[in-house]
Structures are given as structure tokens and as C-alpha cells.
Amino acid sequence: MRKSNVEYEFLSLLGKFITEYLPVSMNASPNTILSYKCAFRLLFQYLEEKTEIKTGHITFEMLNFDLLTDFFDWLVTVRKNSRTTAKQRMGALSSFAEYAQCRNLEAGCVFQSSLARIAKKSFRRVKGKQRSSFTRTELEILFSLPDPTEKLGWRDLVLLSVMYSSGARAQEICSLTVKDVMHDEKGNAILVLTEKGENLGG
User: Fold this and answer.
1) pLDDT in tens, 87-125
2) What are the residues facing 194 on neighbouring strands?
3) SS3 of 200, please?
4) Which SS3 state, helix, strand or coil, does residue 190 take?
């Protein structure tokens, strides 16, 4: 059976969104693109397992409020995703919905409005993990662990001090090069941190 134009349209727009819009227009990092792909793979998996809708037959009209609500419930209850992760999947789908609606207002309208309703109803109170901090005593214990009289101990103490002072992650510290360490007019050190392919001041 031949696919209809609306079926071709969904897959065609999604393909351009992933291969052209994200990497070229948005300059999205490879990790971001992989995350978006994962969101759609999960959506396709849900549709095939729970609704028997094959990937090649998806249309924008199918992605209504009830279906998408069930999809996000499936992510949390069956896939055991946290609500924060489910919110990230929502962001990927919403980004594509906005892209699609700009290119075909009528086709993307149901999809976009359904996602907006779900976001307002289910995810408006979802927050990231609450950060914790060290007490003064805990910091004293932490910095006393390396032995500065030993070469490796001195190295570890420097690394801990830099990570604590800058808030940098271990991978960001490992990615540092000499040119990433600079100084301001007052002699304070400035680190240029690299994360997910982007430069961040530190």
C-alpha cells in the first residue's frame, strides 16, 4: 500500500529536522542530536508496541493529546524514566513540533498544541535535582586526604582545589590544555571549560 502525502510529510520533516536543522541551523552538539534521536526512537517504540502504528505510517494528526499523554506515562511507569528525563524527551518533541508548525501550520497544530497542554499540566513543577554542598568540616577532611609530600598526592590536591574553586567536572578538567588557562588584570586564573562541544567560561 502506498503511503499518503501526510505520512511522507511527517517522516520527511523529521529527517530534515535531525540532519539539517539541528546540526546546521541550530549548531546543536552531537550529544544533543543523539538525545533528540533517542526521544523519537522511544516514541516509535511506544507506537509500535502499544498502538501497532508502524513508523512509516505516523502522521501529525495521530499525535494528539491522549496518545502523547499515554506515551509520557509509559516512559515513567514502564521505562522507569524519571520525570526530569521525561521532561527532556518532551523538549525534543516540542522542538520538532515548533519546526514542523513553521513549515506547515495545519499539520503541526494538533501535535504542538497537545504537547503544550501536557507540559502545562504535567511538567510545570518538575525541577532538576537539588544540589547539596559540603560543610566546612567535610571540606577539611576532603583536602586532607591527598599527601602533598608525594608527587601524586600533590597532583590530587591541586586537582581537587581547581575543581572546587571552579565548579568544573572531572571530564572538563581532563580536557583542559595550557591555552585554556588565562589570567585577568588582577592575576586571577580564568579557565575555559569545554563541555558537550561548547566553550564555557570558568
Assistant:
1) 889 999 999 998 888 887 776 788 888 888 888 876 655
2) 199
3) strand
4) strand
- Phi and psi of 193, rounded to 5°? -95, 145
**Could you give the CA distance from residue 5 to residue 71 in angstroms, rounded to a whole number?**
25
pLDDT tens-place string over residues 124-145: 554 545 556 677 787 788 888 8
* Side-chain half-sphere exposure of 109, counting CA atoms within 13 A: 4
Task: Scan for cell 501550520, then name that residue.
Answer: 105
Q: Which three three-digit cell numbers place residue 147?
A: 599527601
The closest of 56, 57, 93 to 72, measured between CA atoms, is 93
CA nearest neighbour of 10 among 64, 59, 73, 55: 59
Cell reading at 48 = 509500535
Query: Among candidates 111, 136, 105, 127, which has minimal Cα distance to 60?
Result: 111
Cα 197 to its chain centre, rounded Å, is: 13
**CB atoms inside a 10 Å sphere around CB 19:** 11
Q: In terms of C-beta density within 10 A (0-12 exposed, 13-18 middle, 19 or more buried), how is residue 88 classed?
A: middle
Q: How many CB atoms lie within 10 A of CB 194?
A: 18
Non-local CB neighbours of 179 within 8 Å, separated by 6+ positions: 192
Helices 65-77 and 83-103, axial angle in degrees (round to 10) = 150
